Fold each of these.
Amino acid sequence: MFASNHVITGAVIGSLVVNPVIAIPVAFCAHFVLDAFPHYGIGDHTSKKFLYTLSADAGLALALIVVIFVLQPQNWLLIIACGVSCASPDLMWLPRWLVELKGRKPKNMGPVRRFHSKVQWAEREIWWGLTSEVAWFCLMIFVLANNLNFT
Ligand SMILES: [Zn+2]
């Protein structure tokens, strides 16, 4: 699932669960639940399409964090921490991706990466994958906007 969807979902968790000891691990685990939903994904991680999509997605994810930082609603630091926590498991793909970008084949995956890969059973590069991403993002923006407290 897109990083921006992980960040916005983590932000929603941070706005609902105000105890950081609970909220941050819940946001982290929510990553894998989100990945289990049908979502968009581009198989060739070295293609220009993937690089453009990743750049736009990372830009949107960062923009979300910046907006929360600038607006500083109640519990803004926890909201941002949960957003980052929810997106963070995908950082495990970074070393493999860098190997792929060099034109080499990455080593076999360990048990955690295998689990993370298998949980994404319905990642597809087709219209309904993108539709589910956009629908989820709109739903989470709506929930977050109605949940932020500025008093
Ligand atoms: Zn993931």
Amino acid sequence: MKEGKRGALAALFILVLCLGVATGILAARITEARRVSAPVSAPESVETAEPAPEPIPSVSPEDCGHPAYENGVCVLCGHICEHPFHDTEGLCLLCGQRVVHHYPGGLCSCGRTPDLHTTLLPDRFYEPCEQAGSIRSWSYETSVWGRGLPAVVRAGIYLPCGYDPAQRYNVLVLLHGLRSTEESWLTTPLELPDGRFYEMRWIYDRMIEEKIIEPLIIVSASQYLYTQSDNFKSSYEQMAAELQDVILPYVAANFSTYAATGDPDSLILARDHFALGGNSWGSYYTYDTGMCQSLPYFSSFLCFSGDAATAWIVESLESERLRSYPVRLYYSAAGDIDVARKGEEGCFYTVVPLVERLHDGENAFFHICEGGHDWGTWSIEIYNALQFLFP
Ligand SMILES: [Zn+2]
Ligand SMILES: [Zn+2]
Ligand SMILES: [Zn+2]
């Protein structure tokens, strides 16, 4: 009994001694590392040989107070800053790096609201950007709508500058209107009122470069099928099926998205990271193929200068099948002298009051800018909408 007690006392003494020594070593290492990371000015007039680099201290992130960051990485322990807080300029309060504002409910945690434009964007957004994304062409086989003949539909896929398969990216699918193509949202040269030509992708490049938005993948798809003499518009049912069964699975399987695979279950799980939008007829299709038929796959919708059957939208959103799917964002917009202004605006203000989970100014926004039914308007509104888009 006595022997046992003495043994326990000895063990306790050794344990305390070890702890003391370990704490001492750790403190010494931290002090040493701080001394190393602090700028030391060598005395003038004394020639000193280049000192051998000191080994990087092995302080674990749990024991580190992260006293200083360099490029978002703690100089002491290598911890990568998660940027938990930032100021209204978008600078992280811990590491000083620029971060992207996010506007859930229309307001960023720093108190900032989105930078909404009502006139043409500053000139630099209509100019090529040094950090340019790349465009991949892709096509898939389908059938001539309503005629049962085989056909090929093209799509363009924008990958942001520095696309890295090790990262995950949000995906925006955009649909165009009449007399446009799958290149219009990306590379078609468009003309400004002053005669300058620009491409829509320059806006995305610039917004990503300036950290106004996170890098994303943009798929410019088409609900039109062009043949030599005329074009066919897909039925809403066929386009919805192509979005769900062809376009999204292809993107998820071939690029790094938030969906683990291209299977429906994985796509639906990642629905907050997939958005659908379009201009003119592309807006009709966003309502009819997206909101009404593909809500499990997309949680955000951008509707520019379109219209749709409001009764069908309300009925679909409130249906037993779709009621459990939240809508992250419904952004509707048009130009002030846009021929589709009345339709788009009427649609928004009919649908929102009738759908319980849509709230004007929280997850539903209607915006008017100066412009007609043209790409000038859509260049402004895609800039506005992209800021709200993803979590
Ligand atoms: Zn640290
Ligand atoms: Zn940070
Ligand atoms: Zn912010």
Amino acid sequence: MDTAINTTFPIEIHKSPVSHISTVDFDQLQFGKVFTDHMFEADYIDGKWTNCTIRPLSTLQLHPATSALHYGQAVFEGMKAFKTTEGKVMLFRPDANFRRLNESCVRMAIPELPEELFMDALFQLVRIDADWIPNTDEGSMYIRPFVFATDDFVGIKPSDTFKFIIFCCPVARYYSKPVRVYMQEQFIRAFPGGTGAVKAAGNYGATMMPLMEARKRGFDQMLWIDGVTHNRLQEIGTMNVFVQIDDTIITIPTTEGTILKGVTRDSCIALLRDGGYKVEERDVTIQELIDAHRSGRLHDAFGTGTAATVAPIGVIGYKDEEYELPPVESRKASAWLKHELWAIRKGIATDRFDWMWEV
Ligand SMILES: Cc1ncc(COP(=O)(O)O)c(C=O)c1O
């Protein structure tokens, strides 16, 4: 066992005697299927976070009545570590993910995580598994912190005990082709007053059935429509959506509480404005989108998210129509944005917004 580093939440470190990194083909990484050697784990018991440990990644033993499995008190985050061209290990905006995780916790009646615990756990784990961060152009390490209720109790009440875990996956590019998204008004992802603005596990469970339907029709993801008017764009499966109509880049406001406040979304708005693009946060209706497409004014559309970064949309499906977007090579905004983000993360462009944290 290595020594505990910080004082308030000492972390016991048990390193894996052997690494399985040599068994991994880094040229064929499938997103979310390869895991690094270690994980972080802590328990919330008697009102305190305790048992903080980094240990070899392994399965969990859970009671069949574990309340998260039945009543869904579970929240998560998705963030990334990068290696710069000089080999420095950097995290992208971990403070933003920390804040959002706690917003999710508050909404789901889960105790908030102390910042010291979250950051120490994250930095130590990333340091220990830093060799797993691909050095390639589009490679990175996806990091999954999550918290879930562990009371073994049958009955609806907030759990008294929780687990906080972090594990990591080396990843490559998420989409190799422009994304085909599908819009429909029947199934709704989130409502005002619901949990759409946080990363509650159940939000995603409820999207699987409509997604399966969309996949049968040949689409990759849903482009969700709002549940109040049934005609406004919301967001894509795990991405916020941007469209360029004429020379304005528009993204959907997050004020209604139905859309996740993407860290990439926020970063893209800042970059675009800094780069002289005109950006508006306002609603876009299905009709406005279709009209813009028909009149040749829809020049670009893309999703933004940690996993996919900036993903151009190739086709938008609605009813029995497919609205095809201009070829990716002709699109300026999404290509420029993707390059800018990449250059900051790789340490090639100046980190002018102080987004990168060295590990
Ligand atoms: C529903 C949803 N919207 C948007 C995003 C994009 O957020 P971020 O850029 O923070 O990854 C995600 C991914 O976390 C998501 O799950």
Amino acid sequence: MTGRDLDQFVIDRVGDGEFNVHRDLFRDRTLFDLEMKHIFEGSWVFLGLASQAPNPHDYFTTWIGRQPVVIMRDATGVLGAFLNSCRHRGATVCPHEQGHAKYHVCPYHGWAYDSAGKNLDVRDRQHGQYSAAFDRDSHDLAAIAKFGNYRGFLFGCLNADAPPLPQHLGDTRFFLDLVVDQSPHGVELVPGSSTYTFNGNWKLQIENCVDVYHVLSAHSSFVKIVERRRSGESANQLEALDFAAYRSAAITRGSFTFDYGHAVIWAQNATPQIRPLFPMIDEIKQRVGAIKAEWMLYSRNLTLYPNVQIAENASLQMRVIRPLAVDKTEMRIYCLAPIGESDHTRTFRIRQYEDFFNVSGLATPDDTTCYEDCQTGYRAHSINWQQGYARGITAVQRGADDYAKTIGITPVTSQHGPHDIQDETIFHASYREWLRLMKAGAK
Ligand code: FES
Ligand SMILES: [Fe+2]
């Protein structure tokens, strides 16, 4: 597929009031294979948190696109990222999701590696009648081309020509800082994670995280449950989201998009006192200043394209996206929390998380069901174009709005206003990046 072929899948003429995406992006297997090669294996992807391997010889495994990866901390405490594939005949060297091992002995023929990926033993090498050519090759685990760490968020890239990580992340780092700085000691994963799949394309998840428009329709049952709790009709008095204030005209919400496909939506918070973070806010204000502290209490849903999302509106959630097929996606979801918060606050945080975000929560199944409905609807092959990228198109502005200026960032686009705009221009960044990476790969 040439660059010109790819141009036919995205219409990007915002100046003329038009932006659209072809439905084949969600249903075409050839495009999916190219996405794995040129997007997931051609750009930076999120791997995990440094705190998932806190001590020397700890490791955890993950994926870059279709390729198995292991992140290990060596004897001196340095993190490395390698393809999780024995150099001999390919078996995964670390078969577990996470663990602790000074040495990794391949289960198949017994080649051994240390936690820095170095080959220590080709079993029975001395009797192997090997040639000089064999000895010329490195037998170490293959390090991935680029590996970066932004304040404990680990990213990897199989493409040596990708830009440096700070450039890739750009001003989204402000929003990562809002997560890391919630405690002087940083954030950690609350033990336990959920993994689930949905029968839909991965870009449905990319869109949904920053989709304001779906909340009051797709999550209407949750809205009603919250109302019942407030009126005392329900025995469960847990406060998670305040929908009474959600749509209020007094609340400003907005969005920013960035280079490389990243995007964030934000909203002022009428009821900051129902955030687990609230009891710590005075300490936070002193440490990071009033503006950052205020933004920590805003609702924020951040997507770092193409595979990680951090949502903070009830509790704090991290989602990692792994596409399995054009119509199947695996999600790994985690509750994040500031290190050192009180037991009482941690309990409240977990209850909120279970209530809304968890795979068994009141929100997630609404979303995944809608994704699967979309995927079924895409089988209507005589319809080629979506109509879902147009709301807000005459309101979005290039560069920084006043809110961006206040926090000192320079996004590609900004948009803000009352809830009811329910802007859809926020999605444009991801499709621009889709086209850029796919065309770069096609070259
Ligand atoms: S595949 Fe690992 S030792 Fe043979
Ligand atoms: Fe949702």
